[in-house]
Amino acid sequence: MKIAVTYENGQVFQHFGHTETFKIYEVEDGRVVSSEIIDSNGSGHGALASLLGDRSIDVLICGGIGGGAQAALAEQGIELCSGAAGDADQAVEAYLKGELVSSGVNCDHHHDEGHSCGDHDCGEGDCHSGGCHGCHPAMTGKNVGKKCRVHYRGTFNDGTQFDASYDRGEPLTFICGAGMMIPGFDAAVADMEVGQTVQIHLMPAEAYGEIDPNAIFTVNIADVPGAEDVTVGETVYLQSGSGQPVPVKIAAKDEKTITFDANHEMAGKELNFSIELVEVTEA
């Protein structure tokens, strides 16, 4: 088993798409037997996911990560454990003990277009980006822990399509039950048969969660370095109480104050999926 960690000066680097180095851990019988530090050789989630795939990485531990990067990792069959912070070696040990919790997608997919508003603490420990899932399977079903390839189409209740693997021409690959997908999607696939197609309707709690009014907050512009340069509707990054990067949208702004919304853009929405299970293999 091989675990990769986004790495900088002994710490878990907080932005997957911009990491310059990974620390690779070789694990046997639940113990780290060797490690090495490698250069990322470029940036961008597609190139980084391919690099990890070429090195047969089984698990990635990182800080912030966006939806595009998650999809790229899923295509490589790499399990994701995001939202980690602090000492990289300790993060790996926590993962091996089953103590490390993944926060799923926790950066907006327009990451490279976002600003960083310094180290202001937004007071939120989670990015409300799909719920907190354990890095190890917590559900039951014959497909849990296996690599699943699915085609899917996602729509809102009015029939508007928001995403579809069919349009990209490639099935989505993920480890069922590993926290790589929203809970309702994961649960639906857990007991499917290859070739089967199911239709599911997810309430917000099974998808990206309800809108949390506590995740909408107003602060003085003077207290947030860089806030004077952002505009309403833009996504920026603040720092949570645990040191994680948190994507937030600028909801309002006047001469003295700025209002942030840390809810996921899909929070509070009911979602519908048509899911076709294409293939199941051992992870």
Low-confidence stretches: 105-116, 119-137
The overall pLDDT, averaged over residues, is 81
* Tally of domains: 2
* Outline: globular
Task: Give the N-to-C terminal Cα separation.
Answer: 11 Å
Radius of gyration: 19 Å
Query: Which fold name corresponds to the CATH topology of the largest domain?
Result: Chitinase A, domain 3
CATH architecture assignment of the largest domain: Roll
Sheet with most strands: 6 strands, mixed
Order of helices and strands: EEEEHEHEHEEEEEHEHEEEEEE
The structure class reads mainly beta
Estimate the strand proportion: 35-45%
Instruction: Specify the number of helices.
Output: 5
Helix content: 10-25%
The CATH class of the largest domain turns out to be Alpha Beta
Number of strands: 18
What does this structure look like?
- The chain is mainly β and 283 residues long.
- The chain folds into two domains: 2-102, Nucleotidyltransferase, domain 5, CATH 3.30.420; 114-283, Chitinase A, domain 3.
- The protein is 14% helix and 36% strand.
- It has five helices and 18 strands.
- The chain has helices spanning 45-54, 67-75, 88-96, 165-168, 183-189, and strands at 2-8, 11-12, 21-28, 31-39, 59-61, 79-81, 101-102, 115-121, 133-134, 146-155, 161-164, 172-175, 197-202, 216-220, 235-239, 245-253, 257-261, 271-282.
- Strand 16 and strand 17 form a beta hairpin.
- The radius of gyration is 19 Å and the shape is globular.
- Residues 105-116 and 119-137 have low confidence and may be disordered.
